[in-house]
Automatic annotation (TrEMBL):
This is Cytochrome b5 heme-binding domain-containing protein. One of its GO terms (cellular component) is cytoplasm. Residues 21-30 have a biased composition (Low complexity). SUPFAM superfamilies: Cytochrome b5-like heme/steroid binding domain.
Length: 356
């Protein structure tokens, strides 16, 4: 409230003043601004806790009244207003906020500040928010009281509500507890664990214990029949390395004698005739190509008889059934005779006549 308002109020009281109150009029209309400014922003209840009338003078619009004449001002109608019921005097309960000198408050402040130092971020915000809301309501009740600092906010809460404990300071949830490893990294205990497979699954994944291979699970590895090796003992000089050395020779003659230099067009009937009998080489077809397998027979790890099972016909099925991992072309590339054509291929040559 500005000075004009004070003047109006003084005029109001002057108009209602009783005779003999001229002194009050003269005093109230001549306040000294320095005194008002020095008293208004600071709560005076602490300095004069027993002078309820003075507190009212500070909180009321008559606050600018001359302090030195308060005794005489009580004799004015304003003094009768100072006899207002205790609620008016209860307004300076704000003194509790300002008076932070009790031991309990000091202890609470110390604890809160200590926790704030330990958790400088989240707890400070919480304390400020609660204290700010409280101080805002109080400052509204006071009127022109200055806004205290955040530290004052924190202290105001326990003062205003002494019976209430200070607000709990939340702990940051992200902070891991010391000396406690993440649960996901802990090894599964022997007891209950979510990582353990259910008994049924464990049983299904369990390998057969006995040599009999009996297992009730469909996922258990079935017993693989360990077949006896059918490899034969090769004659000296017929090892895979010897075959490799022979195929590396450009003039190895592995295709067979009497063949034209280019690929021969072989009909199924011709292939059938080349069965390795009667002094003829054994030919076999594989993926549309015809190979002379007679030179490879003494080098075949499975024996000559096994290899000649495919003589005069296609060997793809037998080959795939026994050893699909074997590189056919890498071993028999130099033995390539020609390509397999239809029986009535017009370009099929009479290879037998040529070989004769
Ligand atoms: C055409 C019919 C063929 C039959 C019936 C046959 C059969 C066999 C058999 C029974 C074995 C012994 C498997 C074992 O017990 O370890 C064997 C091994 C072998 N055969 Fe044949 N084979 C044939 C064709 C061929 C051909 C055309 C080649 C070469 C291109 C070849 C290359 C081999 C090799 C390299 C092994 C040794 C495999 C190993 O060490 O595991 N076989 N073959």
């Amino acid at each position: 409230m500005g000075w004009p308002g004070v003047g109006n109020l003084a005029g109001y009281f002057f108009s209602r003043s009783q005779p003999g109150s001229d002194l009050t009029l003269s005093d109230s209309t001549s306040p000294t601004p320095p005194d008002f400014k020095s008293e208004s922003p600071l709560p005076s209840s602490d300095a004069h806790p027993a002078e309820g009338s003075r507190e009212h003078a500070v909180g009321s619009p008559n606050g600018p009244a001359e302090e030195t004449d308060l005794e005489s001002a009580q004799s004015t109608p304003k003094a009768s207003a100072s006899n207002a019921p205790p609620p008016v005097l209860a307004v300076p309960t704000l003194s509790l906020n300002d008076d932070a000198s009790t031991e309990n408050d000091n202890v609470a402040r110390t604890e809160i500040e200590a926790k704030d130092q330990a958790h400088p971020q989240a707890p400070t915000t919480t304390s400020l928010s609660s204290g700010a809301s409280n101080a805002t309501s109080q400052s509204t009740a006071r009127g022109p009281l200055p806004v205290p600092e955040p530290s004052t906010f924190r202290i105001a809460t326990p003062n205003t509500l002494p019976s209430m404990p200070p607000p709990p300071i939340p702990r940051p949830r992200q902070t891991p507890l010391p000396n406690r490893a993440p649960p996901t990294l802990q090894p599964p205990r022997s007891g209950a664990s979510s990582l353990r497979t259910p008994p049924s699954a464990a049983a299904s994944l369990r390998a057969p214990v006995t040599s009999s291979g009996l297992s009730s699970s469909t996922l258990a590895p079935t017993t693989v029949k360990k077949q006896a090796s059918r490899k034969v003992i090769l004659e000296p000089g017929y090892s895979p390395l010897d075959w490799a050395a022979r195929t590396s020779n450009p003039n190895n003659g592995l295709r067979g004698a009497g063949l034209p230099p280019g690929l021969v067009r072989v009909t199924p009937s011709l292939l059938k005739m080349q069965n390795g009998r009667k002094g003829r080489d054994a030919w076999t077809s594989y993926q549309g190509k015809v190979y002379n397998i007679s030179p490879y027979a003494p080098y075949h790890p499975g024996g000559k008889g096994e290899l000649l099972r495919g003589a005069g016909k296609d060997s793809a099925q037998l080959f795939a059934e026994i050893h699909p991992w074997v590189n056919w072309e890498g071993i028999l590339g130099e033995c390539l005779v020609g390509i397999l054509v239809s029986e009535h291929d017009p370009q099929a040559e009479n290879v037998l006549d040529a070989m004769d």
